[in-house]
Amino acid sequence: MAEHHPTLARRTVLAGGLVVPLMPRLAAAAPRALAFAVFRNGTRIGEHRVSFTGDGAALTAATDAVMTVRLGPVPVFRYHHKALETRSAGVLATLETSTVTNGRTEHVVAERIGAGVRIDGPSGRVTLGADVNPLTHWNPQVLAGPLFNPQTGRIMQVRTTRVSPTHWTIRGETEIDDTYDALGAWQSLKGKLTDGSVVEYRRI
């Protein structure tokens, strides 16, 4: 999520965790697509969709998020984020994202290499630990470990807490609550932007 304008890609989210295979039950049991209407202070501003192919052994998640904030009839903020994430046996294999914010484009490419994850982003190249994952929200199991921002490629400085079997909080650089159903399928998101506005994701 973001900055002075009502940007929904605020720049950053770190928590400790173990290297474990993450096998989201979503692959076998939940819908093959998730769709959310996005609201800012109660006004609908766009949609966020995730579609899945494959299974727990080789899963691909494709994300497409489009948002526009208007001041009256005039667009003051435009945002389009696309991501393609692949996981092998539940572990992050690759991630490629493209984000256009008010005409400014950012690209991130992440790839597992040996005992780490190499990330090329707007700030250059970095290699992070093998247990790192992008904060793409759809997979609650990644919230137990360190996270990087899929828009910028930077490690996120946050703490994550599982407050109930279906509710996670993310606090620090960003303030987000994610909820999931009993099978681990993403159900909602609520976050606070730096300008004090509130963003909500509601399933459609």
Mean pLDDT: 87
Gross geometry:
globular
Number of strands: 15
Please bin the fraction of helical residues. Answer: under 10%
Q: What is the tally of helical segments?
A: 1
* Low-confidence region ranges: 1-30
Strand content: over 45%
Question: What is the domain total for the residues?
Answer: 1
Cα distance, first to last residue? 21 Å
Q: Reading side by side through the largest sheet, how are the strands ordered?
A: 8-7-6-5-4-3-2-1-15-14-13-12-11
- Subunit arrangement of the protein: single chain
Biggest sheet record: 13 strands, antiparallel
What are the secondary-structure elements, in order, as H or E? Answer: HEEEEEEEEEEEEEEE
Query: Structural class, judged by helices and strands?
Result: mainly beta
Radius of gyration: 16 Å
Structure description:
The chain has 204 residues and is mainly β. It has one domain (26-195). Helices cover 2% and strands 58% of the residues. The chain has one helix at residues 26-29; strands at 33-40, 43-54, 58-71, 74-88, 91-101, 104-113, 116-121, 124-129, 133-134, 147-148, 158-164, 167-172, 175-180, 186-192, 198-203. Strands 8-7-6-5-4-3-2-1-15-14-13-12-11 form a 13-stranded antiparallel sheet, with no helix packed on it. It is globular.
